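Explain this protein:
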Amino acid sequence: MVKTQLHQKENMNTCFKRNKLLIKSFLKNFLNQKKRPFSKVNQWGYDLLKRVFYFSVQGKMIRGGLILLSYEMFKKKIDTAAVRMAAAMELVHSALLIHDDIMDHDDVRRGDKTIYAQYQDIGAGVRTKDPLHFGESMGICVGDVIFFLSNELISSIPVQAGIKELIMRYWSEELAKVGTAQMQDIYFAITKEILRERDILNMYRYKTARYTFSLPLVLGAMAAGQKKQILSRLEQLGENLGILFQIKDDEIGLFGREEDTGKPVGSDIKENKKTLYHYYLFKNLSGTKDHPLKDLFGREKITSSMVHEIRSFIILSGVKNIIDKKMQLLEKRSKKMIQTLPVPVGYKNILHELVEFNMNRRS
């Protein structure tokens, strides 16, 4: 049985690195156990498992790490139940990313080809008439398989039946909301409606914030037997952390470097994503007709000079300053909420570092 506890001098980086090793080791064993039954189906089964493992472990594993951190904060020792939940969280995250890359037409993720782009190359290699369609179809199938594998893990965690029922209900409901919010994101990209700021923030809340922070924090505490009052606090903290995370993601998408992000810079502009930056940028341009910047969003090809032009306007118009202040407010709220949690100081310090990481990260 896996058992570990926070070291007195452990910080956020060492804590999450330690947690990632636990999740990685579990995932390797779990997926290895699937090799024989999957290989019996066809040649794609074993191939899928290899690609999924490599794709999953390339990430920071923040979501799975947060489950372990939350469990540890309240129960003191990480065990097999916690690691199993964390592995399920990382698998479902990989599935969502694989489908997200298809919808956003992103062929690069973490500096490597996305899963659908890898299968597109296979399709081209066997000279299929439409390699892109082949790649996207295979990517959808891979994501679907991972969803079922993650459900297998979460439904078999060794906890009391009543707690397991609560976990399964919360897990299913929150992930269903992610899909619904993703539909909103897709619709926002094509609509010409004038959106409200609260519409964008609500999309952030359910597409990213709750599943990235609220869900893992609540699951860990739920498995550790915490009451509804504590779960509610963690849920609210997760929303603040997650909205901050998404706004920072938008900033990196505009101002980051491809070598840091592992994704093409300007992809949000190409996809006409309705971010807070987009909202305030167009609000600034609302009194002008036919402004050239308006035509850049949604273009099939975005050049570095176009990105530079948008960046410059965002800074000079004061849009970046407005959004920076919103991020600072979320930072302040998050830190205040952390102080109210009934957990040892060492864990509060790690959560504070997580807030700082959200504010200052580059990828």
Q: What stands out?
A: The chain has a mean pLDDT of 92. The CA atoms of residues 11 and 138 lie 40 Å apart. The chain is about 75% helix and 0% strand.
